[in-house]
Amino acid sequence: MASSLTCAGIIWAFLSFICAAASCVGFFMPYWLLGSQLEKSVSFGTFRRCSYPVRDESRQTTVMVEQCGRYASFQAIPSAEWRICTVVTGLGCGLLLLVALTALMGCCVSELISRTVGRVAGGIQFLGG
Question: Major place of localization (predicted)?
Fold first, then answer.
């Protein structure tokens, strides 16, 4: 398999993939903020949460659901700032993955990545970061 990348380009491609994967894992994991509520350990991220309170209407009390899950809808995310963070971080992860996968394909396909395409990919990667 011929490559259109130099040695530095191949290193860039693999580091880009590792960083994009780490960013996506960080985005999907619900451990951004840790704390306790109702004597239970809780954590949440931009669109996932673990051990969260739910109002039990039949007993008129608040109970803790001790499991991890996504918010029921986009509007269920606690604040507008968290919604914006979810969208911006998700778009950034998507851009990073797009560039990383394109760069990895450039390791296997000759003439896929030219100097101009590499510069544009670097700009997209900067924007995604």
Answer: membrane
